[in-house]
Design brief:
Blueprint lengths: L2 H11 L1 H13 L8 H14 L3 E5 L3 E7 L7 E7 L26 H17 L7 E7 L8 H7 L10 E12 L3 E3 L2 E4 L1 E10 L3 E2 L9 H17 L6 E9 L6 E2 L2 E10 L2 H21 L3 E7 L5 E3 L1 H14 L5 E3 L10 H4 L4 E9 L19 H15 L1
Parallel strand pairs: 3-4, 3-5, 5-16, 6-15
Antiparallel strand pairs: 1-2, 2-4, 6-16, 7-14, 8-12, 8-13, 9-11, 10-12
Length: 390
Amino acid sequence: MGLKEKIRDLSQEYHQDVVSIRRFLHKNPELSFHEYETSKFIQNKLYEYGISFKSGIANTGVVALIEGKNPQSKCIALRADIDALPIQELNNVDYCSVNKGVMHACGHDVHTASLLGVARVLNKLKEEWEGRVKLIFQPAEEKFPGGASQMISEGVLENPEVDKIIGQHVSPELQSGTIGMCSGMFMASADEIYITVIGRGGHAALPDCTLNPVLMSSKIICALYEHFDAIEDMPSVLSIGAVDGGSAGNIVPDEVSLQGTFRAMNEEYRSKAHQKIREICQNIANEMGGICEVDIKIGYPFLKNDEKLTSICFKNAQEFLSFNEVIEISKRMTAEDFAYYTHHVPACFYRLGVGFAGEEDRYLHNAHFDIDENALQLSVGMMAWLAVNA
């Protein structure tokens, strides 16, 4: 029996255990930078599997290492994020979150359970593949500045030095049993925008005595959208998602706060766009007699898949599945802190189909998000196969 068949068989054999792990994690989610019990759970599983690891990296992160034959030949890293989101789950399932206001609505429970399954498979077969595999259980993907950047600064890509890194993310828009890959530029950078528009408050019936920051804010929002929506030759998105100001309809407030996001796939344009955001906001406020303060917090960089590694992974995925179950997918304006790794070593970040047939409403970051758990068998087998062939 070849290595591919052995990986398939073990993925099937461990499937129910991986499902149980995923359900436990789903039931007990923890927010970014507070994944203490999740970290302990991961460590206990690795200890149970007889796999050496280090904990406390980026506080709650865990890194394990498995050595195959000729371990000095290469080191492939596999990454799973372990944090959850501040969402109240509305699913009616036995494994529904028991932590109020916290939910694994982005599939990180799947990623973590899958990587534990991969660890078990690769450790069982370590006499049949070459090199080293480093398993990165990373905290805080969902919150700036991101756990990836912190783990990198603490040396996660060193000792031993990582040659390539692979990661996966659940995708409910893809049917369970499929894999989606995109070579080259894949996901956008993400910056947080905080705008404070300052006027002069007073009685709403006496507009001549006030400088209305609500009116200023509305004009700023319209101007921002008008400018960035008109740009067609550079993939980007500007969106204002929160407006906060005022207490009553007959009172003009002193200030209004806006929050938004800016996404891009080009660093030079990203920098110029930040300048344009400030210029639009401040010019409009000044023209209307007010003041505007703009704070742009630089977030995750763009995620670029290494073309050579992604091509290799695409072909290996087709070999593990079939040609019509591994598909090319388009670039996305969503962001991921896995992007940090892609700026240090060749990387392949792909999408794992977890969608239920006939159910298209299980979106990510949604209180009803869930997965077809049959995908867990593929997620384990696929990642293990890609790792040993990278």
